[in-house]
Amino acid sequence: MQESKSVRVSWKQVAAFRLSRHHLSKRTPLAKLSSVPGDIAGAQAQVLLAGQMSIWPRVKGAMLQDVDSALWKEHSLVRAWGMRGTMFLLPSDELSVFVRGSVRRAAYNLNWAIRHSGSKEDVDKLLDRVAEILEEPRTRTDLAQMLTESHGYKTKSKAAGGWGDKRKVPHVKVGAISLSMGFLLHIIRARDVICSGPNQGTEASYVRADKWIKNWKDVPQERAERELLVKYLKAHGPATINDFAIWEGLYMKDAKDIWSRESENMVEVDIEGTKASLLESDLSELENVEIEEPVVRLVPYFDSFLLGHKSHLNIVDEKNRKKIYRNQGWVSPVLLVDGRARGVWSHVQKKNDLEVKITPFSKLSNQVSERVKEEASDLGRFLGCENLKTIMG
Fold first, then answer.
1. What is the mean pLDDT of residues 249-265?
2. 267-319 residue pLDDT tens
3. For the chain, which end, N or C, has fewer CB atoms within 10 Å of the first or last residue's CB respectively?
4. Which three-class secondary structure string do you get for the chain?
């Protein structure tokens, strides 16, 4: 940590820096669509539409069909599990950095499975079979059926859990325990890189990245961890080690290990009394960046800009925080003005009809209100809707 180069900056400068790094102060050209999720350190896509919509406020002229084409035809974007064991949209040429760089969580789960099954050999053999099956896109149903029919494993339906889902799903017996297909897909990340394939009916499918991505290149874990930290700091800096640990879903001991490898390239900054770290190479930009006011954007639920730090007071005041950061980890769509939350919004689409409702936290200026309406209109274009109704209030 280069403490001698510590510098005082304002929250306004930090907001301008982060808006720029997230392509929110100025939309990037359509030709760079597939690189944007990498620049913002991943577009969260546990809900696929949320990830797709996060492209819209950042890429000039983008349409939903462009994102779909990048995902399912060109494979320049992929959907895969990354930080916090959550699904993200990611550039295919950087997928290994995101998956290998966030692998420690999957490795702990794999070690748990080995300990409780009583046999590392049995778990490794099972995951070898899973890797063979995933040479082509397969659903969880396919995976369970092929493990049973082709490899002789016994499966039994049990409650799945997760987000209140009590449906019964197939579990495969290995040693003394039974593992769900979803858990198998998570722990195999400790060995192999997998990503989403196209839906088969209503079911998601999964496939090995080396079979899905042309000219696939893997990255060693240690290098990937360091590169992922750099990506995090470029998008979300200045930040603390605690911010990083929460963002990636790490134990603090692991966060410290990764952070220490890059600390020589960081400087400490003082943001109006709050200490945080920044890549030294980004300091000049932070000191000189300015907002061309007002920057008005409608960002979707679970947007990356909203998820980089433990404290959310840099985005929203405490009075309105729970309107954005809601129960069970739900994050609302937000009206951003110069990097601060000035309201929440929602949309309802019925074929070619789109209704966008904006609920400001306080009265908006006429200039901001007009910009909001322009953004809502552009959302209609992104979604391919001919008829738009915008409701303010």
1. 98
2. 999 999 999 999 999 999 999 999 988 999 999 999 999 999 999 999 999 99
3. C
4. CCHHHCEEECHHHHHHHHHHHCCCCCCECHHHHHHHHHHCCCEECCCHHHHHHHHCCCECCCCHHHHHHHHHCCCCEEEEECHHHCEEEEEHHHHHHHHHHCCHHHHHHHHHHHHHHCCHHHHHHHHHHHHHHCCCCEEHHHHHHHHHHCCCCCEEEEECCCCCCCCEEEEEEECCEEEEHHHHHHHHHHCCCEEEEEEECCEEEEEEHHHHCCCCCCCCHHHHHHHHHHHHHHHHCCECHHHHHHHHCCCHHHHHHHHHHHHHHEEEEEECCEEEEEEHHHHHHHHHCCCCCCCEEEECCCCHHHCCCCCCCCCCCHHHHHHHECHHHCECCEEEECCEEEEEEEEEEECCEEEEEEEECCCCCHHHHHHHHHHHHHHHHHHCCCEEEEEEC
